[in-house]
Amino acid sequence: MRALKIATTVSGLYAILVLSGCSIIMAASGEKQPNFDYITVGAPRNQVEAEFGHPVSTNSLTEGKEEASYKYEMGNSPNTGRAWMYGYAWLTIIGILGEPIYSLIELNMGHDEETRIVYGPDNRVLEIHGYTPPPVSKVVIESQGAQDKFIERRYKSSPPPAEQSGAPPTQ
């Protein structure tokens, strides 16, 4: 009976050590999501496929048109910041105990989407149907504007860089 308790304890500790760090690996890996700035009407097919990958299905339409369906994952891009946070937490007892929760969070990241694109005979985008990303938040736009103003003010207030002539500075 005592040997069973020891074996169970050792197996449990082994499982914790083996499974710990899964959230770190999951946060650091993932699927890069497509950049929708490149997916516009008139864009060439190779540009679209550089973002989406190869289509899962294609259908020939009339007049030389073709509809291609693309499936991809959104919201599960690799995130080294999250991985570092899990790694830092893992160094504490909170991280080791929280590993199952962190792993569940990482398992539920992202969602599958599908976009259908109609190409013309010249392999350029004619129509886009399906998922479109939400517009950029007003808060993000305002914070970017504030950051640009700060950089502009900082640039104007700093003295110009000293010219490098090779001669020692005079005092």
What tags apply to this protein structure?
alpha+beta, 4-stranded antiparallel beta sheet, flat
Task: Explain the overall architecture.
The structure is a single chain. The chain is of the alpha+beta class. It has one domain (2-153). Helix content is 46%, strand content 16%. It has six helices and four strands; from the N terminus they run H-H-H-E-E-H-H-E-E-H. The chain has helices at residues 2-19, 22-28, 45-52, 80-90, 93-107, 138-157, and strands at 57-60, 66-74, 111-119, 125-130. It has a four-stranded antiparallel beta sheet with strand order 1-2-3-4, with no helix packed on it. It is flat, with a radius of gyration of 26 Å. The termini are far apart.
pLDDT averaged residue by residue: 81
Query: What series of H and E elements makes up the topology?
Result: HHHEEHHEEH
Number of helices: 6
Number of strands: 4
* Number of self-contained structural domains: 1
Catalogue the unreliable spans. Answer: none
Question: Helices and strands: which structural class?
Answer: alpha+beta
Question: Percent of residues in helical segments?
Answer: 40-55%
Distance between the first and last residues' Cα: 86 Å
Morphology: flat
